[in-house]
Amino acid sequence: MTIAEKLQILTDAAKYDVACTSSGGDRRGGQLGKTIAAGCCHSFSADGRCITLLKVLLTNICCYDCRYCVNRTSNDLPRAMFTPRELADLTINFYRRNYIEGLFLSSAVVRSPDYTTELMIKTLTILREEYGFSGYIHAKAIPGADPLLTHRLGLLADRLSVNIELPSSKSLALLAPDKKKDDIFRPMAQIREGILQTKADKLKFRHTPEFAPAGQSTQMIVGASDETDYHILKLSEGMYQKYALKRVFFSAYIPVADSPLLPSPLDFKPPLLREHRLYQSDWLLRFYHFQADEILSPDQPNLNPLLDPKCNWAMNHLEHFPVEVNTADYRTLLRVPGIGVIGARKILSARRWRSLDEDSLKKLGIVMKRAQYFLTCSGRMTPALRTRPENVLRALTALEAPAIQPQYEQLSLFT
Question: What contacts 54, CB < 8 A, 6 or more positions away?
Fold first, then answer.
């Protein structure tokens, strides 16, 4: 099999792995690929640049038989595997042609977690030490691998991720019997401790080797099992708090197998809208100081498909509104629909010099189509505040319709 044929198979197999994000990593030394605040495939870095990674599997030959995975051992599909030298050379050649600025490296589990991790380490060692490549590398840590191998991988990569895959132990046992919950959470804890230890050591020793300086992330499949959105958000919140994750990625389940344990491919549509709502909720957890119990509850365990989570929370808690824009603190402003993190900071800065009105808020970039129903300006009510709650709900839902209608059509909700 030629390199081009391997590349076609293994880049196509990598599309199901979405746990890839911009880094902010800065690796010292080396001659090639030096990028500061680098990022992911067709994403924007912290300084506004669009960064491209080569996103590829080392191999799609797998010894596991996860029901939901296209690369499971029982699936009949073309198999391929790069040698460490082939993949390192391919990455460098792509970089020299200005196709990429970094690498996202994942892999199926060939032979064993240790053997797979050793191959990934060899690949990254060639890139870092032989070619002097200092570009961004995101590597997928393999659950069950020896901790010493995971540590070595973290010294070579800028970011590590350990995919949790399914939201509960029950689903993991049912759909991925070869994987164990402890094997997934153990490397997460190790990566967290490694990052903290590096930060502590750098205070004493300036040239301490950095362990996964861009942090860690994980991926969760949505729709392959029957967990609620509340369960998924509580799990995400717990992982942020316990393992200091940079990001939890959600991947709408795409039918790639015909199994009685999975939704039937004939009548199942990927839950893309649900994935979108979970990302919006995740944003509230990470940047808006919400808690999972505020967004959902055991009595209301699933997100509203018609309304974004922040607007939905506001409509269910009208007792907190209206908010006076000229006196409210930062966290209170963040709870107003239409005001984001940047908008709240602009408001705090601008009102030091003048009292803000509706026109001022528009100039600051506040989305008044949403915010007008939830705030006052120097005690003056906006005309929208006189609107009845049921009409507000109808107006906010109408604002969502153009964005979500294509997904509704895909999910057959407009029938």
Answer: 11, 90, 91, 94, 99, 100, 102, 103, 104
Homologous superfamily of 3-295: Aldolase class I (3.20.20.70)
What CA–CA distances, in Å, run from 347 to 13, 288, 318?
46, 16, 22
Average pLDDT, the chain: 86
The per-residue b/e assignment along 360-383, b for 16 or more CB within 10 angstroms, e otherwise, is bbeebebbbebbbbbbbbeeeebe
Look up the pTM and report it. 0.87
Taking the C-alpha atoms of residue 286 and residue 297, their distance in angstroms, rounded to an integer, is 18
Quickly count helices (H) and strands (E) in the chain: 15, 11
How many Å apart are CA 282 and CA 292, to the nearest integer? 9
Identify the residue whose tokens are 């050649």: 93
**Residue carrying the six token digits 């007008």:** 372
The tally of CA atoms less than 13 A away on the side-chain side of residue 127 is 36
Domains of the chain, by residue range, sit at: 3-295, 309-410
217-271 pLDDT, tens digit each = 999 999 889 999 999 999 999 999 999 999 999 999 888 777 788 887 777 788 8
pLDDT tens digits for range 33-84: 544 333 335 443 434 445 578 888 999 999 999 888 888 898 888 999 999 9
Tokens at 361, concatenated: 């808020």
